[in-house]
Specification:
This protein is an alpha/beta fold and 413 residues long. The chain has 18 helices and 13 strands. Helix 6 runs parallel beside helix 7, helix 12 packs parallel to helix 13 and helix 16 crosses helix 18. Bound molecules: 2-carboxyarabinitol-1,5-diphosphate (CAP) and magnesium ion.
Length: 413
């Protein structure tokens, strides 16, 4: 019996995948795990802490969540599709169901949403990436090699002109991508319009010199302003936008991606994700977040460095690659972005883990090069070329000075 006085259906086999949203939770509890599972199913669908006279069997049958599998500390809960808004594509309401009150249930010491699968009826309410990995490659004229990028450092403080100079030097060093850092939007020391115009001139200059590059301008702001800001930034010449999805919300990504006037890719940063993904026993794994960002239309998403960089790796990071690029959903593939503590000496390790369909980027690993930004960009480009050609970085460094200088400073992973 669950706390609501009803026993939720413990079915031996999963029910109709087309009629249910299927969630996998890792549960830590002192209760018998069946009771903990029922508490999740009840709280997130038709129940509460006590039995109620207004919940009849019909409602329970039609809308009650079902516990369909319990294996060790893993619990599968299936939510009927009718538990979800019928309006086209609403991630906020989905999250209130699958990742809502349950995290605060006193009967659970810990609960982590490890994965979620949506039926076609829900997936069809989302458009997915407008450009995706393939579209970005076409824009950059880079069909196969990993994209290689940088984050302008310091995070904050550079003037619009110095930002543009950094971007130009990065492109001259062979990088395909650059971006604002996650805390830079429209501060007095670098107004977004001045920065966007100056960076656009640098990118146009690189193109006139035969090199394609895009820089993502961070438009993270309040929900009622983000589309207007993005349209302005695009009109000032931006070739890519950036949104901090956890702080802005999935709806912000979706609003930009589905807006027909936005004609440039959206780079999705996940700052603050650590508050909910880092604890292996409580919160939400990156995998459900990755699936939701792709549904909402992110063209590129940070998924960490699969254990190779400064940010700790999640156990299922590799599943994030599939969630970015897999064909199991009706959307264009989303470019996985490997970033965070990256430097030339670990590029091979990342490529060995992620393959070539990835964007590898370094902030400190470019700006910290002894030869400056252009040399740092060259070293990263050389490291990616070496990995793509299957040549050991140290061997490649024998004939590529900038890479050698980077390996001398930071070594190999
Ligand atoms: C990387 C970065 C990114 C991280 C975020 C930073 O800089 O700009 O925000 O990639 O982590 O501020 O740390 P460095 P994640 O290259 O200098 O580390 O990609 O895991 O979301
Ligand atoms: Mg950053």
């Amino acid at each position: 019996m669950n706390t609501a006085g009803y026993t939720y259906l413990h079915l031996d086999e999963a029910t109709d995948p087309d009629r249910y949203v299927v969630c996998e939770y890792r549960v830590t509890t002192d209760l018998p795990i069946e009771k903990a599972a029922d508490a999740i199913a009840a709280e997130q669908s038709t129940g509460t802490w006590t039995g109620i006279s207004t919940l009849d069997d019909g409602i329970l049958h039609d809308l009650g969540a079902r516990v369909t599998r319990i294996e060790g500390d893993m619990v599968t809960v299936e939510f009927p599709v009718d538990d979800f808004s019928i309006e086209v594509g609403s991630v906020p309401q989905i999250l209130s169901v699958i990742a809502g009150n349950l995290f605060g249930l006193g009967s659970l010491k810990g609960v982590r949403l490890e994965d979620v699968s949506f039926p076609k009826e829900i997936l069809s309410g989302y458009k997915g990436p407008k450009f995706g990995a393939e579209g970005m490659r076409k824009m950059l004229k880079r069909p196969e090699k990993p994209l290689v990028g940088t984050i302008v450092k310091p995070k904050i403080g550079l003037s619009p002109k110095k930002t543009a100079d950094y971007v130009y030097e990065s492109g001259a060093g062979g990088l395909t991508n650059s971006k604002d850092d996650e805390t830079l939007v429209d501060q007095r020391f670098c107004p977004i319009e001045d920065r966007t115009v100056a960076v656009a001139e640098a990118i146009d200059r690189l193109e006139s010199e035969g090199h394609m590059m895009m820089h993502a301008i961070n438009v993270s702001t309040r929900g009622d302003r983000i589309v207007e800001l993005a349209e302005k930034v695009q009109s000032w010449g931006a070739r890519e936008l950036m949104v901090d999805v956890i702080t802005c919300g999935f709806g912000a990504v979706q609003a930009l991606a589905e807006d027909p006037s936005i004609k440039v890719p959206i780079h999705v940063h996940r700052t603050m994700h650590g508050a909910i993904t880092k604890d292996p026993l409580h919160g939400i794994a990156m995998l459900p977040l990755t699936k939701l960002v792709r549904m909402c239309g992110g063209d590129a998403l940070h998924i960490g460095t699969l254990g190779a960089g400064k940010m700790s790796a999640g156990a299922n990071d590799f599943k994030n690659l599939d969630a970015c690029l897999g064909n199991d959903v009706p959307y264009k593939g989303m470019m996985p972005v490997c970033s965070g503590g990256v430097y030339p000496g670990i590029v091979r390790d990342i490529v060995d883990r992620a393959g070539f369909d990835v964007q590898i980027q370094a902030g400190g690993g470019v700006a910290g090069h002894p030869g400056g930004v252009r040399a740092g960009a060259r070293a990263m480009s050389q490291a990616v070329d070496a990995a793509f050609e299957g040549i050991d970085a140290e061997k490649y460094a024998e004939t590529h000075r900038e890479l050698k200088e980077a390996l001398d400073k930071w070594g190999m992973r």
